[in-house]
Amino acid sequence: MPMRHWRSATAVTSRGALAEVVELLALVAGQDVEAGQDGIFRIARRVAKDRMISTVDAEARHGHKSRARTFDGYKSHLGIDPDDELITGVAVTPANAADREVIDKLLYNPVTDATSGAPDTLTDADNTDVTDADAAVNDSGEHVDDDLQPKVYEVYGDSAYADGATLDAQTRRGRDMRAKVPPVRNANGYSKDQFGIDLTAGTVTCPAQHTVAISTGRRRQVARFGALCGSCPLRTECTKARSGRVITIHAHEAALQHAKTRQRDPDWQADYRSYRPVVERKISHFIRRPWGGRKACCRGQQRILTDILARAGAINLARLAILGLHSNAGGWAIA
């Protein structure tokens, strides 16, 4: 009886393992084909969203550093204290994950009041099979020393952290996001950045100084210049649309406009530039050849995270030695 039970359990385990293999095979075979109108399956002329790229490492994904530069595997993300140059947080994601998705993990829990323990950290994204991007956080010193006043932390980052939703969300968490909002491009003429958007008045002014009201549609807010474009001397430099130029108002337009205004300030630019060398230097330490460079030393997201934690710990220990870390009767201290 015990022997029959053992065989039954083994059979169940085998069937479960076989089912997993069959499911994986179906996913890999099916993600690159699509059915035509005639019902015949053909190779799809597209890349499947969240495409599985390896049957050995099922969590790995395709990633893009830029349109022309791609990589496969994972991204490692770093949180860095720009003053002490210590790595304060790490995370690992599939290569196709957006850098902004892990910002709260790198900065610990959302900061909501003056008593919250938040790190003086700089978030930075690197990848494991790997690439990089960056951001940073400091106690700004701009808060009032009062238990009722929220504490504001400065977070420095590149354009990967500068979308409207992230800017709004981090502001609500008590973080002053100092990330560069990328310019809006328009191949047919003037970009959206060359239009004056007044959200208070609810108007948009074009480069030819025509002003129209912002209207609210079913899905979004827009400013339509319509007939004004017909006789405009700048039309050929602005739009090719027969119906005239249309400016779409982003759901987080206020946050984007505020960030763009700030980043034109010379003092803001100097402050931003002062932290970038620190970040780049720490990234170069992190991807040194003895650590494996930009290549992961193992497979699987959890194993790579363990490797990244070990790297960060060793780098921090070396940095603490430079800062004069020593042991005394009272414990550990920095000279």
Low-confidence stretches: 1-6, 110-135, 139-149
Q: What summary fits the major beta sheet?
A: 7 strands, mixed
The count of strands amounts to: 17
SS element count, helices? 6
Roughly what percent helix? 25-40%
**Mean residue pLDDT:** 81
The arrangement of helices and strands along the chain is HEEEEEHEEEHEEEEEEEHHHEE
Shape label: flat
Distance between the termini: 70 Å
Radius of gyration: 26 Å
> Proportion of β residues?
15-25%
Structural category is alpha+beta
What does this structure look like?
- InterPro entries: Tnp_DDE_dom.
- Residues 205-321 form the Transposase DDE domain.
- Pfam families: DDE_Tnp_1_6.
- This is Transposase DDE domain-containing protein.
- It comes from Mycobacterium innocens.
- With 335 residues, the protein is of the alpha+beta class.
- Among the domains are: 13-48; 192-251, no CATH class.
- 29% of the residues lie in helices and 25% in strands.
- It contains six helices and 17 strands.
- Strands 3, 4, 5, 6, 7, 8 and 9 form a seven-stranded mixed sheet that branches. The protein has a three-stranded antiparallel sheet with strand order 10-11-12, with no helix packed on it.
- Helix 3 (164-172) packs across helix 4 (253-263).
- The chain is flat and about 75 Å long.
- The model is unreliable at 1-6, 110-135 and 139-149 (pLDDT under 50).
